[in-house]
Specification:
The chain is an alpha/beta fold. Helix content is about 25%, strand content about 30%. The structure holds zinc ion (ZN) (2 copies).
Length: about 220
């Protein structure tokens, strides 16, 4: 599987192009301010994007939605419980001093248990609220790797966890999602957070101070 990630300031939020090198089919995850770079990757490699998948609707993860939909003309997916955030993109942008092209394009579908495929790969969607109500973990599995690649948005980071002080955030709900939904996806699973470097479930289970504190209580 081809995994290309890009991030630009001020938030350095990771946007991803995931593609099947055999078929050229691809999905886009969380197009933000780096969207032009994601579009360039797709064009250079002549990929066929099938879906745009959002891990959640905080402003840094959706500022590139309009450009992505314009470039790829494919369905845009979000969890229903984050629609209130998506609808308030303008207020979010103001709050964080971020520029966003408004209006955002309509959400075409809410996650409904649909399993996405792109070439030889499949994407299972797991609801992981806590950082925000509609956060999801996109679990990508395929024939060439034994454990899934997890695109977790801002739920879990290398050595940290998502903040829970924004509207709809809840610490206990977040920790339940991390330990009860994400961790069971397997110690070898590779975690691609919405910000910062990759990690693994095993490493976070063993060393993440927030997880260790939660599990000790
Ligand atoms: Zn967020
Ligand atoms: Zn973020």
């Amino acid at each position: 599987m081809l995994i290309e990630s890009r991030a630009v300031g001020p938030f350095f939020k990771n946007g991803f192009v995931l593609a099947c090198e055999r078929t050229g089919e691809a999905v886009i995850v969380d197009p933000g301010d780096e969207v032009a770079e994601l579009v360039a990757i797709v064009q250079e490699r002549q990929l066929a994007v099938r879906h745009i998948l959002l891990t959640h609707a905080h402003i840094d993860h959706v500022t590139g939605c309009a450009a992505a939909v314009r470039a790829f003309k494919v369905p845009l997916w979000l969890h229903q419980d984050d629609m209130f955030l998506y609808e308030r993109a303008g207020q979010q942008a103001q709050m964080f001093g971020l520029k966003v092209e408004l209006p955002l394009p309509p959400i075409d579908h809410f996650y409904d248990g649909t399993v996405f495929t792109f070439g030889d790969y499949r994407v299972d969607v797991h609801h992981t609220p806590g950082h925000c109500p509609g956060g999801v973990c996109l679990a990508v599995s395929g024939p060439d790797f034994p454990a899934p690649h997890l695109f977790v948005g801002d739920t879990l980071f290398a050595g940290s966890i998502g903040r829970t002080d924004l509207p709809g955030g809840d610490y206990d709900v977040l920790m339940k999602a991390i330990t009860g939904v994400i961790f069971p996806l397997g110690d070898d699973a590779i975690v691609h957070p919405g910000h910062g470097p990759d990690t693994t479930i095993a490493r976070e289970r063993a060393t993440n101070p927030f997880v260790l504190e939660y599990l000790a209580t």
